[in-house]
Amino acid sequence: MDSSSTSEAGPSQSSTSFERWRSAFAAIAGPSSTPESEEDRMRLQDEKDYNKCEKWKMDLMRKSPMITFMLKQLDLAGCSFSPSNIQCYACPPTTSGGFSSELGILLCQNQLFGKKHLEDTLAHEMIHAFDHCRFKMDPENLRHHACTEIRAASLSGECNWAREFFYRGHYWNRATVGKHHQECVKRRAATSVSSNPACPSRAEADKAVNEVFESCFKDTRPFDEIY
């Protein structure tokens, strides 16, 4: 994990890794034609979002049982993370975070519902980092991609009932909570795999997830059980 920006520098920092994230998302978002006054407003909002994201990130890295546990496990696996390896940045509307073996972890400062959402997002990306550290993962292998997405969706907390009900509108029947958790994991994993440039269709993403689901869902490392 070789991301090198620092949390003290603020949203105007120009470190190599920050500029590479900027370039990656500029390519997605396309060229800007925003009027100057609107740019000023957006700049102020970006600064506000950035500062909030950084504060929450640092609080979680110090106090969250989930995040401190994952930091320790990554360190033991030989892939230590510091605040400079976890960056806040504005992203397109459909993205809340990302992991790159070269750049580290991205937290989308403008797509966070709250501190708990940031915690779940950070945990999700840290599980990806843990998997990358443990295995030689081929990003174009849909089964590899499906496995890490299954584990991240299941173990990070993003498929808990509150997130499903309040943010996604999926109703949970208390009598079948376990089944709904698995359905959420499959749905979230397939959506991620379908965005892989090597994936030709949603049907192929569903197929990859179904092929590895049983073994990858049972693999709860580094946890003893599902969080």
UniProtKB/TrEMBL annotation:
Query: What are the subcellular locations of this protein?
Result: Mitochondrion inner membrane
User: Which InterPro entries does this one have?
Assistant: Peptidase_M76_ATP23
The protein's matches in Pfam families, at most eight in alphabetical order, are given as: Peptidase_M76 (PF09768)
Describe its membrane topology: Peripheral membrane protein
Gene Ontology annotations for the cellular component aspect, listed alphabetically: mitochondrial inner membrane
Q: Which residues form the signal peptide?
A: none
GO process annotations (BP): mitochondrial protein processing; mitochondrial proton-transporting ATP synthase complex assembly
Which keywords does the record carry? Hydrolase, Membrane, Metal-binding, Metalloprotease, Mitochondrion, Mitochondrion inner membrane, Protease
This entry's Enzyme Commission designation comes to 3.4.24.-
What does this protein do, in the record's words?
A: Has a dual role in the assembly of mitochondrial ATPase.
Q: Which PANTHER family match?
A: MITOCHONDRIAL INNER MEMBRANE PROTEASE (PTHR21711), MITOCHONDRIAL INNER MEMBRANE PROTEASE ATP23 HOMOLOG (PTHR21711:SF0)
Q: Which family does it belong to?
A: Belongs to the peptidase M76 family.
Name of the protein: Mitochondrial inner membrane protease ATP23
Q: Which organism is it from?
A: Kockovaella imperatae
Starting at the broadest rank, the lineage of the source organism is: Eukaryota, Fungi, Dikarya, Basidiomycota, Agaricomycotina
